[in-house]
Amino acid sequence: MCINRKALIGLGAVAVAVLLLKPGWFAAALPLLILALCPLSMIFMMRGMKGGQGKSQAGSACGMGGTAHKTGTSATSSTDLDKQISALQAELRDLKATQARRDGVTAAEAQEAVDLTKDTRPDART
Question: Torsion over CA of 3, 41, 45 and 76, rounded to 10 degrees?
């Protein structure tokens, strides 16, 4: 179970305040505080994920060995991704050509199907 440190500290402070101010209510408030820990922890973690892309998220790195998971970074470089995309596009063109030959499509229609699979983005490197 992963519990956000801010939620735990906040609810601990509320528990101490209830114990000091209204000791008779503590027995009734404790189960509610424990029950509120999960949703409040989730809210704090979601807020941290939304706005804390570059910040350290010490309380929300549960289950990852104590280190925050960096989103948006990848072990694969962009040139490797471009090579993979080009290879997949070439494979798709070959499959469409094979399917067109199998279905008895004319050469012009097969070429049109192959041309539709080419990447037409201006930043494409194919």
Answer: 30
Angle at 62 (CA atoms; ends 59, 65), nearest 5 degrees:
115
Q: Which two tokens stand for residue 31?
A: 């189960």
DSSP string, 52-71: -SSS--GGG-TTTTTS---T
- Contact criterion met (CB below 8 Å) for 37 and 12: no
17-70: per-residue pLDDT in tens? 999 999 898 899 889 988 988 888 888 888 878 765 545 444 445 655 444 445
Q: Report CA-CA distances (Å) from 61 to 9, 11, 41, 107.
A: 17, 20, 12, 56
Question: 3-state DSSP call for residue 80?
Answer: helix
Among 46, 18, 52, 43, smallest CA distance to 32 is for: 18
Considering the entire predicted model, what is its pTM? 0.39
Pick the closest to residue 96 from 121, 119, 124, 115 (CA basis).
115
Distance in angstroms (rounded) separating the CA atoms of residues 98 and 104: 10
